[in-house]
Amino acid sequence: MHFFTRVSQKIQPAAAIEELAFNLESQDLACIYFYYTEEYSAETLWRELTQTFPETSIVGCSSFKGIMTESGYFAGPVLALMGVKASSSCVFTTGFTEFSEHEKIHEKVQQSLQDALHNAQRVGEVPGLIVLHATPGHEEEIMQSIDHYFSTRIPIIGGSAADHMINGKWSVLTEKGFSGSGMAIQLAFPDKPLATGFSAGYSPTEFIGTITASKGRLLQEIDGLPAKEMYKAWISDHSAIQISDEFFFNHVTSFPLGRLAGDIDGQPYYKLIHPLRITEQGELELFADVRSGEEITLMTGSRSKLINRVVRVLKEANSKNYTGAAQLGSISIYCAGAMERLGEDIYQVQEKICRLLNHRPFICPFTFGEQGRFADGENAHGNLMISSVVFYESEFLKL
Asked: Would the pTM count as exceeding 0.85?
């Protein structure tokens, strides 16, 4: 397998795709991972991509404000691809579906997986990796459907499509189609080993409560009190910061909520929840589903932790490379909220990824939710997290 990246900041989609495709033989490409900012029309990009790469598996989504590769951080308008050249024994196949209010997500996801396997003549087989991109809203149900379909935990890496102002200008695409409300998924059967990592860059505080009322992504009560008041009180008691409703969103990336996901050698690890806004009823609208009875914790994280957590995730992946095999390439998914908080420090993140990957090709969009595989094998959806997969040159023991 051979990985490479290309970036274009040309405004016209046709010119940008032409720049990405310059001197490339499309028949040599096994797949393309493709990311873009909201300034580009998904429909136009899809049309140009499928005309330029008619025989190539494509999966991607819109990214928040920019994209990273081994060449640097690029602010939008920007689009970028990671191409993979591989032998015929390495198979990439995609599934695509649009969601509507009246359709069952589970059935749509199952049909997409079935179609992808059928098209690749891999029915009954289990992929080595799933790359998942969906528009925000149904990530937990999608992942449950994937686990149910295969009846085993397949490594998943993914990110929810993003825009710049949380106003629905996000989209996903594959070579099969594009949508502002849907799912793009790739099932990979690589002929090289890979390893994944998934982690948060935040630590728990002393403030813990139980959800006593919730509905989907609305957190209504904590310990029998309005969620808004409890959350703001926790932040005030922990940091002496008084948050007004007007500037609520300015602080939530510093103080997300966390749910205990497990522990490794006695050290707990968490799935993070990113509050989005306060409703008129005093509820907290979130980027992830919650349920009554769950215990939640106020989390906190410094800028240095957000910068350095990529080190932790990639080291987690590399720790599975028992034979020290050479790195070939990587996909990383980085939370848009954390990226926004870091500002210019995102360049430090890019430099750290480059060093850890020995300057091998990588691509990294910024998303509104992250999907990955914890160390215990559980696949999960969270917020303010980083998820990575690294491909290696030769075989090592196990994932």
From this structure: yes
